[in-house]
Structure prediction request, 128 residues.
Amino acid sequence: MIDQQAAPVQLRIATHPGQLRFARVTAATLAGDLPFTLNAIEDLRVAVDELAAAAIEGCEHDEDLLLTFSVDGDAVVVEGRVAGAGEAPELHPVAEDLLELLADHYELGVDNGDRVFRLTKRPRSIDE
Prediction:
């Protein structure tokens, strides 16, 4: 099991859709050290992909998406930031529905001109 007080993991990737796989793998790796089922890990991967894709939408491919992955108790928290990207796009209704189902909490917005997101995912019980 992962040390619950472990330092956050930071990942900087280009704002290119092909780079999002690194975000998905990093989130899954962190969740794999927690009491996440395989289904919950896949849910986390999908949620990270949806929010990260929204965060980079319309960005030039030479910009950076800075991701921070951390553990809060048994939850994985993923935060993303694209400096200077401005207002976040409106999420597609299907993406909104997926995130409502898969994430315990999510936000997508703007902070001082940076496009930002935050996702929290906790493991589910086997009965859920």
